[in-house]
């Protein structure tokens, strides 16, 4: 079901609080023990904190009523923040990859990881739990937050893997490999996490450019229009244009009809389509027009 602004803010605030705690632990351990994969995890967490704060602000801004200066409202702030979250995460990945490559080229850096296994497992469990919980909430901003937590679970799991790998390598007396464990695991973590921010950027930019809504929304729109056409005998050609902007669906439908159709009939068609779209639980800005024009464009 649709989520209220107050609940959305409350959920994002809980996520923010948990992120702050985990980021402080990661940075503290990483800097104290000199473990890059932990510092990377903590730095990523700090970026997540900033973008979560942006998301909380976006919830309130996106739901503001239209004004004279913003007659169409500010729904665009939602995909803008989603894209910004992805860009910020990608920037952190680029920095982490560059740092790891430099360390490898310099001959690696040996670190003590025995005490980090528990950290990696604990954070992976917490992050997975947060990702699953947030993934159940129907909201673009909360979905973006869920992807960040999924990435956090992957990074934490890689921390645990790095620690276990270092212990096994040391036990096998392969000391020449030990300095490369940390930077290699950073690179692996980046490769696994990268698709998530890329997805956020793609989704946000597509909505800002007024691209077509997701397939499930488009399918519902098509079904609603076909239902109206069948109900009112509108069997001639029709045209559908739709785009998604945050929680708002912009919809334009044109039906070609024979002369004599009334405004009342047009209103009935529009109301029918809106009723069919109610299960989407989105704010729908619709234009439904019956025309005798031979060309629909």
Automatic annotation (TrEMBL):
This protein's GO CC annotations: membrane
UniProt keywords, alphabetically: Membrane, Transmembrane, Transmembrane helix
InterPro entries per the UniProt record, alphabetical: Cation_efflux_TM, Cation_efflux_TMD_sf
Residue ranges of every copy of the Cation efflux protein transmembrane domain listed in the record: 12-209
Annotated TM spans: 12-33, 39-59, 80-104, 116-136, 156-177, 183-201
Its membrane topology: Multi-pass membrane protein
Molecular function GO terms recorded: monoatomic cation transmembrane transporter activity
Highest rank taxon of the organism: Bacteria
Compartments, record wording: Membrane
Pfam families, alphabetized: Cation_efflux
Keyword match Membrane: yes
The keyword Repeat is assigned to this record: no
Name recorded for this polypeptide: Cation efflux family transporter
Originating organism: Protaetiibacter intestinalis
Lineage: Bacteria, Bacillati, Actinomycetota, Actinomycetes, Micrococcales
């Amino acid at each position: 079901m649709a989520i209220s602004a107050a609940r959305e803010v409350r959920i994002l605030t809980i996520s923010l609080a948990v992120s702050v705690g985990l980021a402080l632990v990661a940075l503290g351990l990483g800097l104290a023990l000199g473990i890059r994969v932990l510092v990377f995890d903590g730095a990523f967490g700090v970026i997540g904190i900033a973008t979560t704060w942006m998301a909380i602000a976006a919830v309130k801004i996106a739901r503001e009523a239209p004004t004279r200066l913003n007659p169409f409202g500010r729904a665009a702030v939602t995909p803008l923040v989603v894209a910004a979250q992805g860009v910020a995460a990608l920037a952190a990945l680029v920095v982490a990859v560059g740092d790891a490559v430099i360390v490898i080229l310099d001959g690696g850096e040996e670190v003590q990881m025995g005490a980090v296994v528990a950290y990696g497992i604990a954070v992976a469990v917490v992050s997975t739990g947060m990702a699953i919980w947030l993934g159940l909430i129907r909201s673009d901003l909360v979905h973006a937050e869920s992807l960040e937590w999924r990435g956090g679970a992957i990074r934490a799991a890689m921390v645990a893997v790095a620690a276990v790998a270092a212990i096994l390598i040391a036990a096998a007396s392969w000391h020449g490999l030990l300095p490369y464990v940390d930077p290699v695991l950073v690179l692996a973590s980046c490769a696994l996490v990268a698709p998530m921010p890329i997805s956020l950027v793609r989704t946000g930019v597509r909505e800002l450019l007024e691209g077509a809504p997701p397939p499930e929304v488009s399918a519902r729109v098509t079904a609603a229009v076909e239902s109206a056409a069948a109900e009112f005998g509108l069997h001639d050609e029709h045209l559908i244009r739709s785009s998604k902007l945050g929680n708002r669906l912009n919809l334009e439908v044109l039906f070609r009809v024979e002369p004599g159709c009334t405004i009342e009939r047009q209103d009935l068609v529009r109301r029918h389509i809106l009723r069919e779209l109610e299960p989407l639980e989105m704010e729908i800005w619709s234009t439904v027009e019956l025309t005798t024009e031979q060309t629909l464009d």
